[in-house]
Each structure stands twice: as C-alpha cells, then as structure tokens.
C-alpha cells in the first residue's frame, strides 16, 4: 500500500477523470501523485584526446566505468548539473563546450543529457561515489567493463566523430542493457 505524501492517508490506483493513465490517488485529499521521467545530466570530459571515466563505488554496477553523471537538481540548469556531478564524482572542474548526446530510456523513465567538455588544468581526483578516475585513450577504453549503455554509446559517438573532427548532437532512444542497446 502507498500513502499520500501530502496528508499520509492511503492512496488507490485509478485513472483520474480526464486522464488516460493509472495514477496513485489519495483516498482522503484526492491528491494525484504523478510519476514522470527523471533527467540525468553528465559530461564527456576530454583532456589531450583522452576521456575521463569514473569507476563506480556504488551500486548499481559497482566497480564498472561510467561518465560523471547524476540526477539533475532543482534550481540548476542541465549544464550546471553536469558540472556539479563532475565536481562531485571526479573532483574535476570543466569547461562545457556543447550539448553532445541525449538519450531517451523509456523503459526506466530516464532522459540522459550529456555535454562535451574540457577538463580544466588536467586535474581530477575521486569523489565519494568513485573508486578511481582515469583518462583513457581510444585504445584503452574498458569496453567490457562499462556501466551503462549510455556510456558505451557516447564513447562510440565520440571516437567516430573524432575521425571527422565534427561533433553533432546525437539523440536516440536506448534500452537498459549493454548487450541490447537498440
Ligand atoms: Zn492525501
């Protein structure tokens, strides 16, 4: 059973009048509890043709490599969120260059927004949610130890775009599993 976040009474699953989807609705105050997709902001951080990856110190995907990224907070822009997550997870300051990749992941209600950025002064560390951070050239990317499909796709896009030195915005839908990213 779920409870109303406003008044604490039980909620019930039903389609509100004029709506088309089942929602949790309070049996006392009638508050409708909408659940909508969440935005995840992050950065593909570049330094001297290498990309910055973080090894996760948290579940899910503990020990696997990811891009600095996390849930967008209230009162910040997407770019500010990407810079904040990079400071938190990689202890790095970045200069954001452009919006680079947007992924819809409808199965889990997530939207990824990833910016291409340059590392400032080449300095980075490892934040609380990170075991270690490292710069990887294309030959060294740990392709079999990446945490999420969004990480794999972004790296694939980046190294392909490097061939032409043109970095268009990539927008696509992804699945949730690394072996079925279509
Ligand atoms: Zn209520």
TrEMBL record:
Name used for this protein in its record: Nudix hydrolase domain-containing protein
Domain of life: Eukaryota
Domain Nudix hydrolase residues, every copy: 36-159
Organism: Rhynchophorus ferrugineus (Red palm weevil)
Pfam families: NUDIX, Zn_ribbon_Nudix
PANTHER family according to UniProt: NUDIX HYDROLASE 23, NUDIX HYDROLASE 23, CHLOROPLASTIC
């Amino acid at each position: 059973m779920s409870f109303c976040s406003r008044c604490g009474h039980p909620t019930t699953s039903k389609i509100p009048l004029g709506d088309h989807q089942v929602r949790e609705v309070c049996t006392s105050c009638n508050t409708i509890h909408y659940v909508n997709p969440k935005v995840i902001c992050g950065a593909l951080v570049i330094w001297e043709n290498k990309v910055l990856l973080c090894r996760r110190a948290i579940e899910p995907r503990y020990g696997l490599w990811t891009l600095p990224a996390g849930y967008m907070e209230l009162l910040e822009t997407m770019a500010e969120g990407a810079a904040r997550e990079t400071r938190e997870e990689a202890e790095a300051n970045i200069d954001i260059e452009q919006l680079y990749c947007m992924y819809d992941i409808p199965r889990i209600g997530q939207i990824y927004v990833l910016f291409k950025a340059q590392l400032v002064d080449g300095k980075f560390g490892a934040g609380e949610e990170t075991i270690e951070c490292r710069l990887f050239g294309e030959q060294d990317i740990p392709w079999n130890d990446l945490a999420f499909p969004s990480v794999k796709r972004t790296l694939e896009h980046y190294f392909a775009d490097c061939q032409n030195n043109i970095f268009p915005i990539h927008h696509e839908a992804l699945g949730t599993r690394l072996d079925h990213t279509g």
